[in-house]
Specification:
heterodimer, A: 307 residues, mainly alpha, MetI-like fold, two-stranded antiparallel sheet, B: 280 residues, 2 domains
Chain lengths: 307, 280
């Protein structure tokens, strides 16, 4: 606040004029950002609430039917509940798995081992690739006669048609996602690990704590800020998964809707069925579950840590 | 934990165990990419061999030329470059201006502006694709570069990153400029901005990567294939030529090469960006 102290030497009117100039400058600096974010982020979020009460197929004239009609139709639609189930199951498996894998590899990589930079590079590499690239790569690997089944055949296992079989299609996408995001979150954990004071570990070792105790009693609790970020980002990322499902199922959510997620359903409502109102209602529903889960995670992990 | 290094046979065994786990992990992470490169160099008949073989025979480099000729890869490269470079420039200017104001100027409404921007961190694009599509359609931006660029021109995450960096610039440096009567823009441009150049580089890389890899936004905006970007073009190509995996994998390699080069050169800044966004 030394900026203010400098100005205090001036007269009262001078200060007021200076403040006005400062405010004008600040709004000049932030206005383009606010306009763009309002148009393409906040505005659409609000617009979705309005659209969830209309009947419109993009071509005819839009008319208001009320929220009750659209939400009632949405909530009685079997495909909607299939998509909710797929998204929630996907998040419930992928998010914890990628968090645990990221933590394990971050803890190991934080030891004094050779070629750490090279390992970090290898783990991080999948997260710089486009979802389009990784999805196509895994479609090829999960092919009936692909690399994965070749590997399984080596162990005498006759692998299924991963992507063509409704029992395995979503699991294939789960494996793809865990593979592609674990390295990213590992880097976040690594940064968090480096922020933990060394002295705490030294004290614990003098007290005779073993390796596992040190991880469970020191590392995990003190990593809470990183864990919070990773769990929230992982949850948002998995609940609204779209690209991989769209690409691997060719936009259909098949086989037998086993890969239809909420986001894919929204896309289909607008582009395949021309049902903007229902798509918007599903959008609002997606907001609400992301919000509810975020609040729950915040309750669980969001407290500040005390050393 | 780096400096804690217990000695003894137990420690050696655990170090070997750690290394084995890391090697296994690294193989799982890298082998899909190696398999992609391997497939891209095989004749189609050999790519279909079961059980699969790792080494192509012969190395068919012609696949890359053929892929480039079969589909308009050149056009997609140009489109991806236009969109990514424009997004990077927009974010560098707008995110740093907004981040500067939020970090260094005390103005009425600052808390609200900051809160609005932070709250937008929680809105993922997938969740708002439907209203964004309708707004872009109303603005007549479907099938245009502007339609793909404008929604990516600023990012809440970028503003947040720049604000953090400007907060770390010491106050004293700007105080002398205030005494000299310099305006805010001059203070931003001549004094503060040069001090946050590493953060600007981090921002540029993150935005470039996000934009280059973006699939959903071009999918919504570009129905006309003249506007397809690389990820979209590649997926559409797959739906047309879905059996020709060597071509597809060659395309996948070509899409990944530019971002890989950037990553290898600027690895430190990529890691920095993730660490910063993850810590606060």
């Amino acid at each position: 606040m030394s900026v203010v102290r400098v100005a205090r030497h001036e007269t009262r009117g001078g200060i007021r004029r200076w403040h006005r100039k400062e405010t004008a400058a600040a709004y000049f600096f932030t206005l383009p950002t606010l306009i763009l974010l309002a148009t393409f982020t906040l505005g659409p979020a609000v617009y979705a609430f309005f659209l969830s009460g209309v009947s419109w197929n993009l071509l005819n004239t839009m008319h208001w039917v009320g929220w009750g009609t659209n939400f009632k139709q949405l909530l009685t639609m079997p495909l909607f509940w299939t998509s909710v189930k797929n998204s929630v199951v996907f998040a419930a498996i992928v998010m914890p798995t990628q968090t645990v894998i990221a933590l394990i590899f971050a803890v190991i990589l934080n030891q004094n081992l050779p070629a750490r930079g090279l390992f970090r590079l290898a783990f991080f590499f999948p997260s710089i690739s486009s979802s389009a690239v990784t999805s196509l790569m895994f479609m090829w690997i999960f092919n009936k006669l692909g690399l994965l089944n070749g590997l399984l055949a080596w162990f005498g296992i006759n692998g299924p048609d991963w992507i063509g079989n409704p029992r395995f299609a979503l699991s294939s996408i789960m494996i793809l996602n865990i593979w592609s995001t674990s390295g990213y979150f590992m880097v976040v954990f690594l940064a968090g690990l480096q922020a933990i004071p060394q002295s705490i570990y030294e004290a614990a070792m003098i007290d005779g704590a073993n390796g596992l105790q040190r991880i469970l009693k020191i590392t995990v609790p003190l990593l809470r800020p990183s864990t919070f970020f990773i769990v929230v980002m992982g949850m948002i990322g998995t609940l609204q998964m779209f690209d991989q499902s769209f690409i691997i199922s060719g936009g259909t959510g098949g086989p037998l809707n086993s890969t239809t997620t909420i986001a894919l359903l929204i896309y289909q409502e607008i582009f395949s069925y021309g049902n903007v109102g229902l798509g918007a209602a599903a959008t609002v529903f997606l907001f609400v579950i992301v919000l509810v889960f975020t609040i729950l995670v915040n309750r669980w992990l969001g407290k500040p840590i005390e050393y | 934990m780096i400096s804690v290094r217990p000695k003894g046979p137990g420690a050696t065994i655990s170090r070997v165990l750690y290394l084995l786990i890391l090697i296994a992990g690294a193989i799982i992470m890298v082998s899909p990419f190696l398999w992609t490169v391997s497939t891209s160099l095989k004749p189609l008949s050999q790519a279909m061999d079961f059980p699969p073989k790792w080494i192509p025979h012969p190395f068919l480099w012609k696949n890359y030329v053929d892929t480039w000729k079969t589909v308009p890869m050149g056009q997609w490269f140009v489109n991806s470059s236009i969109v990514s470079v424009a997004s990077v420039i927009g974010n560098l200017i707008l995110d740093s201006l907004a981040g500067y104001a939020l970090a260094r100027i005390n103005f009425r409404g600052k808390t609200i502006v900051f809160f609005v921007i932070v709250s937008m961190l929680m809105i993922p694009f997938q969740a708002i694709m439907l209203p964004v599509y309708i707004i872009l359609r109303d603005l007549r931006l479907i099938n245009s570069y502007a339609g793909i660029i404008l929604p990516q021109l600023v990012s809440a995450m970028g503003v947040f990153l720049m604000r953090q960096s400007f907060l770390n610039v010491p106050n004293e440096i700007e105080e002398s400029a205030i005494m000299d009567g310099a305006g805010r823009f001059r203070m931003f441009w001549q004094i503060s901005l040069p001090m946050v150049m590493p953060a600007m580089l981090t921002l540029a890389l993150m935005i470039f990567m996000g934009s280059w890899n973006n699939f959903l936004l071009p999918l919504l905006v570009a129905n006309n294939q003249n506007f397809w970007t690389l990820p979209l073009g590649m997926v559409m190509f797959q739906q047309q030529y879905y059996t020709n995996w060597p071509y597809l994998m060659a395309a996948a390699v070509m899409v990944t090469v530019p971002i890989t080069i950037l990553f290898l050169i600027f690895q430190r800044y990529f890691i920095q960006g993730i660490a910063t966004s993850g810590l606060k």
